[in-house]
Fold this sequence. Notes:
Blueprint: H1 3-42, H2 45-79, H3 81-115, H4 122-151, E1 156-159, E2 162-165, H5 168-172, H6 175-209, E3 214-215, E4 221-222, H7 234-272, H8 274-280, E5 290-296, E6 306-312, H9 315-321, H10 331-342, H11 366-393, H12 403-411, H13 414-429, E7 434-436, E8 450-451, H14 462-493, H15 500-504, H16 526-529
Antiparallel strand pairs: 1-2, 3-4, 5-6, 7-8
Helix pairs in contact: 1-2, 1-4, 1-6, 1-13, 1-14, 2-7, 2-14, 3-4, 4-6, 6-7, 6-11, 6-12, 6-13, 7-8, 7-11, 8-11, 11-13
Amino acid sequence: MDPLEIARWQFGIVTVYHFMMVPLTLGLGLLVAILHTMWVRTGDEKWLRMTKFWGKLYLVNFIMGVATGIVQEFQFGMAWSEYSRFVGDVFGAPLAMEGLLAFFVESTFLGLWIFGWGRLPKRVHLATLWLAVIGSWISAYFILAANSWMQHPVGVEFTDGKPVLVDIWAVLTNNTVLAAFPHTMAGAVAVAGGFLLGISWYHLWRRRRDGIDTVDAKGRVIVGEAPEIPGRDARDHRVWITSLRIGAAVAIVGFGAVAITGDIQGKLMYEQQPLKMAAAEAACHTGTSFSVLSIGELGSQDCDKVTPLIEIPGMLSFLAKGDFTTELPGLNQLIPEYQEKYGTNLPDDPIYGERSGAAIDYLPNLEVTYWGFRIMIGFGALAAFAAAVALFITRKGTVPNSKPLMQLAVFGILAPFGANAAGWIFTEMGRQPFVVAPNPNPSGVDGVFMFTAAAVSPGVDGREVIFSLVSLGLVYLVLMIVEVMLLARFVRAGVAGVMPELFAAHDDIEPGDGTDAGAGDRDDVLAFAY
């Protein structure tokens, strides 16, 4: 049992699972802060209800993200100690900034927001949420700076076989992170938009199903009320239709930003990691055509067995260089260039263990990179198209009384999540066989790279990594079940589940009176948080 492959599976599973929480936290936090701002500015109870409902889901996701993210750091020492030694001098600075500056700020002010309802002045309370959200975005930037260094090493000198940091500013302003950060944030915003859309559609459908809302002869909504059911009043309709239309608009804007930033990032990637992008296009031969659809023998890494079915002439050149005529090198040309520069076999070094002298396969997994790239684009475009359709369908103030359509809207929440996950899988898998990729681009530091085969902990055997993989997999499975159950519980409960005080003693609540009302029992500070 090769510990390298098992350790890669472990890191991949844990990372992808954790990353499912990250875009929702980054995107939903921003939207909740905007909703809270609208309530402070207008005093309209609709915005307060939206803030508390979506804020509850934001908190559940944030907490689970923290719980699963902590394991990431332990993995470096557990299964990737050689990698930690190699990158430690570089990663120490951005990750320390992320922990000490960003994460502490984020956690501290989020705690003040949770416990500050009814205790802090309204504008101060709002500021705590904005600071928490800004802290989370800064935290993401530092993490992306570290990851981008793995894609494009800068700001270091190669001393005694390892990179030594000489310019932290170069690391933090790496052109790779400057392209990756807006792309990642745009993806996060698209995820949050789809999240609002799907859940709001569900609640509007429930109101139609229960006969609370009806439509007139022209299909326009007739908003009703059900006084016997907490929270099913006219304001409840306003909460969901506003949330749905905000979510749809945000999803469309988010995808547009993803497309623009993705084009910038793709052009940069063609310069820095041409082999990755050639694999993403299954471009075996030098040319200008973009493969819309190619097929090959399942599991094969043989370029001769890849057959393009649909191609767009000139489109590959446009994606890479902004014109339609520049020929891009294919895999058959790039792989010999990599072999000439970095060797055909792993060095005969104890750090590689039994893998010393093994032949190096420079070709990334073609199926993963090719389809990962297309799933990323396809799911993102599908989510944006669905958001546009939702805006059209709900233009008269409600959703159709159709259960299959509601189920499709709820299931559609997963599309932007899938796009984000596929993008990261493509980014990381496409870098193989390197864990720190060499860059032929002169803007990088020549000679700074590390084979993945050298990164795994030498003292760990396959059985130990299997044990940790199974253990972490089971723990993460339990956490996933808990999160889904919590989210489903609060989603079904609606606004009444997070604001019981509005319906138990509605007459005592005056959201527009200039105080931070809506906190209910002022002694029960955890009522909103948990």
